[in-house]
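Re: the multi-chain job from yesterday

Posting the exact lines I submitted so nobody has to dig through the queue logs.
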Amino acid sequence: GAVVSQHPSRVICKSGTSVKIECRSLDFQATTMFWYRQFPKQSLMLMATSNEGSKATYEQGVEKDKFLINHASLTLSTLTVTSAHPEDSSFYICSARGRNNYGYTFGSGTRLTVV
Amino acid sequence: GESVGLHLPTLSVQEGDNSIINCAYSNSASDYFIWYKQESGKGPQFIIDIRSNMDKRQGQRVTVLLNKTVKHLSLQIAATQPGDSAVYFCAENRFRSNDYKLSFGAGTTVTVRA
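And the result, structure tokens for all chains:
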């Protein structure tokens, strides 16, 4: 079955630094990737959608200059949290979809803690 | 705005009993729905899906029912086991901003009592 690998699983960083999270589709071509954020005891909230080779589309209220998304290949998307602050601490999850509109595969998530 | 939501935030069930988790959606144009299971610290795990041209679909110990008339989705788990303890989310595949995207409900926390 389709597998998406997300790294790192946990990261702690200092305020003001940047953190990069990687999401890779291992056995299929991910034409579209999605990035979600999940706060404790809450649901997944979509942050942005990216198509390979195109600029990401951000959801309302998500700062595109703070959450940089790169989808340079059909198997890799990265999310960079720039100038991280404690309020950016959250669980970040990626999802990848192939050429049909119905097959979503999720990564295992990244727990980001900003101190 | 329109969103997918769940009726109850928590469900406690005796081991061996059947569980029913409900979900209400508001976008009648959505054509695909998915149930996910999420354990603590992990990503969502696919359980079962259903397209809008169906009203019932069965998997191993799980059944999803779709009632388009009242825009209601449910997940039934047969013979609930301790390993079923988790948060369950329904998700709705909606077309917006020129693409299909998943919108998640609030989630139901299922606790299985031994």
